[in-house]
């Protein structure tokens, strides 16, 4: 018996139409504000005192506003200045600067993003949100990064919480939470045109913001982009280019001094090229061209009401529609989500937050011979409730946080996700913290109802052949995956020029899903004698992971900054009968990662950025270790205009980072590239 671990040009047209819309006379009734609000200066990152970095706002840890320095969790905040100085054009590329986050670019249109291990094309133990809307697909509980994009100029911050977030966010926040938060409409008044043209990427974004009456502001935007094909090792193009376009809006109303209403929405469409494996019974599999048609729309409404004694009540709902059509399957789904939470102070030293939510999912998934789900259509209802108490002991400079979340998912028993955390501030600017928590990952739609058939023809000798069929099925009764995590950390401002943030963790996993295979046997399939290899999901793997994550920033002068991040990870997987799967799950995430960024103000108008990264080898994909270097030169002739030239992956002409586990093209390699960008605020 052998088991294998399972981790698990519309754009230009849209821009032209949206540009017309953004500046159309229908908005003339709104007060025009031609300021260049939102145009950050190049030296903004260097003007912020280092001690203020630990006072950055974070809301993802407890669904309330907290300062980064006081958190009893491993956290990292990507600011607008970080985005500007990174030279990145996509969210996954930005996440490479975060310690403990594993980013693998599979090809031109696919990324794998995970926290603290278990990376892979279908990594699924990390919750990702945009403005509070979950963007993971319930089909496999991971993220299609080719259908997720934002105007990077409109991002207020990206909050990254490493370690379980189940007490607040629930299932699938097993190893961490990434929350992408965009700026309010009031922060993006006036107009912006942003363009980029390079050897691999071309894109354009437009945004316009104005006033709605006496109490509101609006933002309208459009973005289109195109990525060129990557290479395969033979030097040929990989047929994995892609393009996407999106239009959207945001409105913010201050109904009263203590009452706010936010409404935002977006519609997008894209074409994603690739090669995929198709199968037919009694025939060898073939690699064919594929083109995914990807569409999506969503609408979010959030109401906030301030209460007495610094209390706050928040109600949010969203409607999300996604569509993906490819050779392998057609997936169409609608999500309706409603949640609330209530923050209040109790007695003198308790800050309580509690809430609950309901999520309704409806999908239609049609496959083919290779991949399918049964039933093809399904409806699911999820219920959850949580409570958390933050207890302050001011005389001891201690904060104790205790809470839990309970969730009800279809066909899964009730899941509890408690946590206990303690932080101590022996003196200002220094925080020691520790925590223990439990989190779960509930099975995805495919893990519960899916089937995969991989067919071929084998030689039986003497010129004879016989069909061979590997059949992967989902048995009834698979359970949620579970982890108990132990964490300690320290963050401080060591001096006015130096900050540091260190976290250590030990994760104990149980009931991890794996492919449980049986012996190959001769069976009758479609009336034909066939060598059948049956495989099914089973909760038969345990694991331990431990590691260290370190981030530090040093400013040797008022015009120069360095940011260093280091990650160490050791993951051990165990299955019955002593099998340990080093060749798969353990080798899908790098053991060591290093990121070194620097920003240097050359003159009042010129700025130079550099980003050096090292990633350890990935044995599962036969990818050697690699080092990359990005350089960016800015010129800002005025507060309204910015120009930049960016070089990506400058040390090698091309390099591999990973590969899809299933139904993929040959291993692709990411090429060296050059990009010129321009921003105009008006």
TrEMBL record:
Pfam (any one): TonB_dep_Rec_b-barrel
GO BP term, example: siderophore transmembrane transport
GO function terms (MF aspect): siderophore uptake transmembrane transporter activity
InterPro entries assigned: Beta-barrel_TonB (IPR000531), Beta-barrel_TonB_sf (IPR036942), Plug_dom (IPR012910), Plug_dom_sf (IPR037066), TonB-dep_rcpt-like (IPR039426)
Gene3D superfamilies for this protein: TonB-dependent receptor, beta-barrel domain, TonB-dependent receptor, plug domain
Signal peptide boundaries: 1-30
Keyword RNA-binding: no
Record localization: Cell outer membrane
Entry similarity comment: Belongs to the TonB-dependent receptor family.
Protein's name according to its UniProt entry: Putative TonB-dependent receptor
Organism: Magnetococcus massalia (strain MO-1)
């Amino acid at each position: 018996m052998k088991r294998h671990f399972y981790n698990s040009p519309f754009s230009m047209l849209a821009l032209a139409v949206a540009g017309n819309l953004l500046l159309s006379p229908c908005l003339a009734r709104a007060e025009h504000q031609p300021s260049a609000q939102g145009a950050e200066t190049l030296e903004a990152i260097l003007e912020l005192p280092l001690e203020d970095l630990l006072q950055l706002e974070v809301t993802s840890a407890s669904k309330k506003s907290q300062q980064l320095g006081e958190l009893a969790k491993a956290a990292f905040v990507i600011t607008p200045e970080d985005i500007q100085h990174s030279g990145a054009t996509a969210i996954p590329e930005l996440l490479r600067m975060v310690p403990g986050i594993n980013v693998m670019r599979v090809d031109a249109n696919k990324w794998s993003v995970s926290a603290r291990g278990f990376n892979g094309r279908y990594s699924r133990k990390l919750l990702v949100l945009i403005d509070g809307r979950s963007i993971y697909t319930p089909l496999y509980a991971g993220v299609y990064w080719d259908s997720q994009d934002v105007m990077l100029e409109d991002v207020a911050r990206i909050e990254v919480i490493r370690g379980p977030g189940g007490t607040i966010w629930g299932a699938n926040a097993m190893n961490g939470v990434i929350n992408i938060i965009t700026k309010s409409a009031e922060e993006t008044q006036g107009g912006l045109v942003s363009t980029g043209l390079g050897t691999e990427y071309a894109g354009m974004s437009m945004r316009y913001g104005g006033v709605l009456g006496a109490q509101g502001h609006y933002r309208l935007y459009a973005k289109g982009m195109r990525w060129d094909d990557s290479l395969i090792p033979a030097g040929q193009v990989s047929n994995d280019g892609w393009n996407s376009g999106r239009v959207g809006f945001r409105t913010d109303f201050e109904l009263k001094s203590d009452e706010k209403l936010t409404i935002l929405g977006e519609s997008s469409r894209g074409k994603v090229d690739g090669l995929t494996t198709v199968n037919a019974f009694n025939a060898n599999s073939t690699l064919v061209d594929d083109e995914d048609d990807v569409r999506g729309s969503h609408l979010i409404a959030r109401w906030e009401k301030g209460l007495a004694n610094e209390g706050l009540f928040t109600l949010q709902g969203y409607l999300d529609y996604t569509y993906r059509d490819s050779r392998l399957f057609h997936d169409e789904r609608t999500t309706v989500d409603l949640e609330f939470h209530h923050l209040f102070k109790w007695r003198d030293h308790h800050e309580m937050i509690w809430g609950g939510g309901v999520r309704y999912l409806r999908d239609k998934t049609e496959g083919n011979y290779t991949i399918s789900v049964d039933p093809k259509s399904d409806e699911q209802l999820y219920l959850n409730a949580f409570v958390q108490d933050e207890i302050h002991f001011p005389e001891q400079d201690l904060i104790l946080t205790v809470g839990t979340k309970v969730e009800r998912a279809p066909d899964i028993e009730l899941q509890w996700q408690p946590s206990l955390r303690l932080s101590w501030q022996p003196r200002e600017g220094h925080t020691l913290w520790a925590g223990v928590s439990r989190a779960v990952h509930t099975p995805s739609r495919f893990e519960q109802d899916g089937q995969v058939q991989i067919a071929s023809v084998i030689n039986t000798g003497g010129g004879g052949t016989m069909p061979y069929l590997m059949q992967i099925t989902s048995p009834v009764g698979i359970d949620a995956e579970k982890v108990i995590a132990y964490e300690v950390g320290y963050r401080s401002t060591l001096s006015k020029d130096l900050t540091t943030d260190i976290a250590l963790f030990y994760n104990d996993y149980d009931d991890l899903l794996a492919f449980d295979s049986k012996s190959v046997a001769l069976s009758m399939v479609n009336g034909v004698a066939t060598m059948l290899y049956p495989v099914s999901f089973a909760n038969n793997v345990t694991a331990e992971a431990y590691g260290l994550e370190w981030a530090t920033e040093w400013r040797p002068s008022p015009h120069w900054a360095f940011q260093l991040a280091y990650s160490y990870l050791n993951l051990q997987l165990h299955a019955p009968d002593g099998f340990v799967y080093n060749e798969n799950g353990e080798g899908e995430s790098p053991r060591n990662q290093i990121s070194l960024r620097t920003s240097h103000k050359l003159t009042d108008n010129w700025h130079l950025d550099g980003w050096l990264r090292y990633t350890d080898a990935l044995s599962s994909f036969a990818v050697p270790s690699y080092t990359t270097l990005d350089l960016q030169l800015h010129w800002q002739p005025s507060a309204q205009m910015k120009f930049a030239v960016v070089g990506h992956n400058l040390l090698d002409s091309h390099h591999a980072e990973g590969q899809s586990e299933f139904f993929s093209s040959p291993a692709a390699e990411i090429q060296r590239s050059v990009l010129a960008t321009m921003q105009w605020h008006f």
